[in-house]
Amino acid sequence: MAAVNRQWLLASRPVGFPKMSDFRLAETPVPAPGPGQMRVRNLWLSVDPYMRGRMNEARSYARPVPIGGVMEGGTVARVEVSNVKGFAPGAIVESRFGWQDYALSDGRGVRIVDPQLAPIQTALYVLGMPGMTAYFGLLDIGGAKSGETVLVSGAAGAVGALVGQIAKIIGCRAVGIAGGAAKVRHVVEDLGFDGAFDYKASSDYGAEIARLCPQGVDVYFDNVGGAITDAAFAHLNVRARVAVCGQISQYNVEAPERGPRLLGQLVVKQARVEGFLVFQFQERYAEGMARMAGWLKAGRLKYRETVTEGLENAPQAFMGMLKGLNTGKQLVKIADA
Amino acid sequence: MAAVNRQWLLASRPVGFPKMSDFRLAETPVPAPGPGQMRVRNLWLSVDPYMRGRMNEARSYARPVPIGGVMEGGTVARVEVSNVKGFAPGAIVESRFGWQDYALSDGRGVRIVDPQLAPIQTALYVLGMPGMTAYFGLLDIGGAKSGETVLVSGAAGAVGALVGQIAKIIGCRAVGIAGGAAKVRHVVEDLGFDGAFDYKASSDYGAEIARLCPQGVDVYFDNVGGAITDAAFAHLNVRARVAVCGQISQYNVEAPERGPRLLGQLVVKQARVEGFLVFQFQERYAEGMARMAGWLKAGRLKYRETVTEGLENAPQAFMGMLKGLNTGKQLVKIADA
């Protein structure tokens, strides 16, 4: 075991895009569990777009990380020492243990991961929060049905890659928007999307959407917002649904962006736009996990990971993900299982 | 009977706000009904915000009025001569007979109005399209429930005035936004809204909404769009619903307005925005009519009409309504019943 607990703390609230100086690496003693506590060793850290919001001062759906606080994040960890019933040393677990080597826990909100089911880090992706986000976001919020056209922004990202594949599994046409030719090839050739375009190489998103969605868009799964979303709205069908999962294009702007007013289009299209957080489906995770695990085992869900080695590189991994340098799930490998 | 059929034709497609020269009054022979037809005498004409859209070239949910075509509009009329079974001369009927003195019809889409139930022109308001819009928009699209706060823009307009009253009937707090002190007094003192503010006298819509909606906004019923709606979004509660009925502030802009991007707020609020057209509830009009008629008879729904006398003044009535000169339903009285 490492002699110290390395912890990434929030040093300052970012103005616009985060900088290395917004993070500080502290070294603290490895914590000793008291009665009713266990100590876990983090193995894998997930870095996700939502974390950018936690770095801001404004209270959102969750409390901000305080200045000097450990950066929040989901991890897969191994139980080292345990005074908690049901969590034996050696067990692999998943929870929000943060950007650090070690954490203490009383077991609440901790899920035991079955290493036989799939690689343990999938508990942070296909069989974890991003997987549930894609599953419930597409099927419940988006209400996608067989025969419909599903358009996904951020298609090569963790959630988007799954959304398109689930859409295909249930019989939809899946069209992606991604940044860069390699990502476009990936979602079409590796993941089986029906089509995709590279927004970085396009001067007319609307024309690309029209070309790839000749029947219009029934469900738009939005991870990015901004001008891409403006274009998608213009191609919504009557009674279309927009599932707003994220707006990553807007997370690092220094001044709020302005854009065309979109609500008028909703009236003539009788369309619905709904924002969601995966937590609202908490009581149905078992259903979602079972279906995603089934598709995964059957080889119907493929996934790619972008792995950054070492906790010391977590801020770079996080900032790279915000820039879209990852394909699929951005993970930080902290220690060998 | 008049010797001619006066008809308001669309002379040109308005650029920005409509002008008198966009309309042309034609005099044509009074039409004679053939077999399977009836002739009706229009008595009341309804002018409504949606008509502005029909004057544009772009196809929306309905075909545009062609240049030289009779302006579309709902009317209450009296059957004069009838070769249609079920429609006797003298019957009072409601349909989309247009901006003219007389019309022919084969009876399709024509509803017989019971003059005993309420004044016949209510078939164009409380017991007509605006009434159904308010009823289904608030209860189905908005999903308003007892104890919630309902905020309504365009609160002194035809639909808004009903929305606030239905909200009160089902046990909500109803708060209105209207233009001018007289309208604000009307919705609070006459219609029983819990509160309202005059956007024309306010420099900070958000502060007014916060003051009048101390528990936040659960349902925002939007008739206007623009900056008022931007402010309303900032006060949505978690799991709020926005029913987008109209965006009258945007109908006459020459260049599309830009505004703050709103979708990010939907994610953190897990909120839903849905545009709708009353026609989507067509199969449930009987339910809506029955409940609205019941509340009307019981004195629980009040309504005000702004009546312009004479078909010759229909364009002025329409343009006045677009400017918000009316309180409650803007009607044009064409002839005595």
Offer a quick outline of the entry.
Chain A is of the alpha/beta class.
Gross CATH architecture of the largest domain in chain A: Alpha-Beta Complex
Question: Biggest interface: chains and residue counts?
Answer: A-B, 36 and 36 residues
**Biggest sheet overview of chain A:** 7 strands, mixed
Q: How many DSSP H or I helices of chain A?
A: 9
CA-CA gap between termini of chain A: 12 Å
Shape of chain A: globular
CATH superfamily of the largest domain in chain A: Medium-chain alcohol dehydrogenases, catalytic domain
Measured on Cα atoms, how large is the radius of gyration of chain A?
A: 20 Å
> How many domain modules of chain A?
2
CATH third-level topology of the largest domain in chain A:
Quinone Oxidoreductase, Chain A, domain 1
Order of helices and strands of chain A: EEEHEEEEHEHEHEHEHEEHEHEHE
Overall pLDDT of chain A, averaged? 96
Oligomer: homodimer
Measured by DSSP, the beta-strand proportion of chain A falls in 25-35%
Structural class by helix and strand composition of chain A = alpha/beta
Share of helix of chain A, binned: 25-40%
- The level-1 CATH class of the largest domain in chain A: Alpha Beta
What's the β-strand tally of chain A? 16
Structural summary, described in words:
Two copies of one chain form a homodimer. Chain A is α/β, with parallel strands linked by helices. Chain A folds into two domains: 4-125 and 304-333, Alpha-Beta Complex (Quinone Oxidoreductase, Chain A, domain 1); 129-279, NAD(P)-binding Rossmann-like Domain (Rossmann fold, 3-Layer(aba) Sandwich). The first copy, chain A, has nine helices and 16 strands. The first copy, chain A, has helices at residues 50-54, 129-141, 158-169, 181-190, 205-212, 226-233, 263-269, 285-297, 314-322; strands at 4-10, 23-29, 38-46, 75-82, 92-95, 102-105, 111-112, 149-153, 173-178, 195-198, 217-222, 236-244, 258-260, 272-275, 305-309, 329-333. In chain A, the strands form three sheets. In chain A, strands 3, 4, 5, 6, 7, 15 and 16 form a seven-stranded mixed β-sheet that branches. A six-stranded parallel β-sheet of chain A has the order 10-9-8-11-12-14, sandwiched between helices. In chain A, helix 3 links the parallel strand 8 (149-153) and strand 9. In chain A, helix 2 (129-141) packs across helix 3 and helix 2 crosses helix 8. The longest helix of chain A is centred in the middle third of the chain and has 13 residues, at 129-141. The two termini of chain A are 12 Å apart.
